[in-house]
Every structure is written in C-alpha cells, then in structure tokens.
Amino acid sequence: MQDDAPLFVISRAAELAGMHPQTLRQYDRLGLVSPRRTAGRGRRYSLRDVATLREVQRLSQDEGVNLAGIKRILELEAQVERLARQVDYLRSFVEPSRRVFTADPRGDVVATRRVPRTPRPQQAPRAIAAAGAVVLWRPTRD
C-alpha cells in the first residue's frame, strides 16, 4: 500500500489523527495538509496526510509552535527531502565529472548521458539538440 493513496474520508482521518473534522478542514484551508479530492469535491486523506496531521498536532501542542510556523517548518522539511533526493541522484554516478547535466522544464538538474573519455565536440550539439535541453559545457583540459 502506498503512503500517498487517498484512503480515508475526513471523519476517519480525523479519528486517526486525534482531531475534530473541522480542524482538518481548517488545516486544508491554511495549506498545512492537502488531501486529494473526489469528483464530488469530498476530501480523501492518505497515510502521509494523517502522519502530517499528527506532526502538526505535536508541534502545536508539545512545542508551542503557531500555525504559520508549522506551515513554514513543513515547507522546509519538504524542501530538504527534495534536495536530499536530488543529491542522492547526483551522487549515484560513479564519475560525476564525466556526465552531462541538463535542466528540465521545472529547473531540476537531470543527468542525460555519459560523456566519453575523449569527447568529440562536433557530435555534442546534435545530441543535445535532439534531447531538447540546454547544456553548459566546459571541455576538459588534458
């Protein structure tokens, strides 16, 4: 079962999180948690959403953090998670200095292909144009 699968109606999610359903509605309006919506606009919460609700409750009650602070904490944690995934991705290559990296439409760094040990510059522009990417290239000095 996936953590992001929309499983729970608001009453069940509120019960699992130990909150009142109206509190979940308020947190949705504030952007602290964003459940998926059904065709009829009903909220469906995932296991990840319930865990986030529990964390919001912990930060609020145990740590005394206000809702604006909690929202910022959640945003920063999500950013750290995204950056950690990107670092792991970039570190997964044996010889990162021998890779060609591009930026996808969202601006994320993407490794596209390995550069041969003796790159032939005349072939690089065709490959890059075919990929539809912009690449910064610095020839290696031998």
TrEMBL record:
Its lineage reads: Bacteria, Bacillati, Actinomycetota, Actinomycetes, Micrococcales
Q: What is this protein called?
A: Regulatory protein MerR
SUPFAM superfamilies reported in the protein's UniProt record:
Putative DNA-binding domain
Alphabetized SMART domains for the sequence: HTH_MERR (SM00422)
Q: Which residues form a coiled coil?
A: none
The domain of life for this entry's organism is Bacteria
Keyword Isomerase in annotation: no
What is an example of a GO molecular function annotated in this UniProt entry? DNA-binding transcription factor activity
Kindly state which keywords UniProt assigns to this record, in alphabetical order: DNA-binding
**Which Pfam family would be a valid example here?**
MerR_1
Identify the residues that the record assigns to the HTH merR-type domain, covering every copy.
7-76
Keyword flag Nuclease: no
